[in-house]
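Notes from hallway chat w/ T.B., transcribed later so I don't forget. T.B. wanted the structure written out for a chain they're using in a teaching module, and asked if we could keep both sequence and structure tokens in one place. Agreed to drop them here.
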Amino acid sequence: MEYILPLLGLTLLQIVLGFDNVIFISILTQKLDNDIKEKIRRYGLIASLVLNSVMIYFAGYLIHLHTPLFTLFGVHYSYHNFIMLAGGAFLIYKSIKEIHEKFNEHISDDAKELVDNSIFKNLIAVISMDMLFSVDSTITAVGMTDIRWIQIVSVLIAIVMMFLFFKTINRTVEKYKSIKMLSLLFLFL
């Protein structure tokens, strides 16, 4: 009974953190051909599972990401700050780019940039984002409990939920333009 509450709480938090990942994978892959899109989405979620599991395994090292590297004007800076800064900058860039494209949909197809359907290139982009989201969720898992099996099981449950609801979330984001715009604004924020 003493393990149920931490497991439920951490699982719920992992699902919420995974929701960002699902939305971003959906946005990154929406312009690709359908067969490539599905492969990249599937491989992206598998990569998320593997990355989260590996990072939890090495969680002791991740705790030290918060160790200050230097202090500037009374503010401590760590590896975690730089990882989150890089991830945030990328999210802002991609969100602004997608929002800009949404407002310029009236441009003729000739003027639009060609979509790169390369599996490798798109998969690297998805895995890079998975890595950034994984660092944050792993640090959260380590901060909530030091029981390794609870950390891993919560991540496994969250990834399974992402697999189960990915198509539904993706269809909703693609069908309702306002939800996509809200998702982009959420990612931007």
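Follow-up for T.B.: Strands lie at 70-72, 75-77. Might be a good example for the class.
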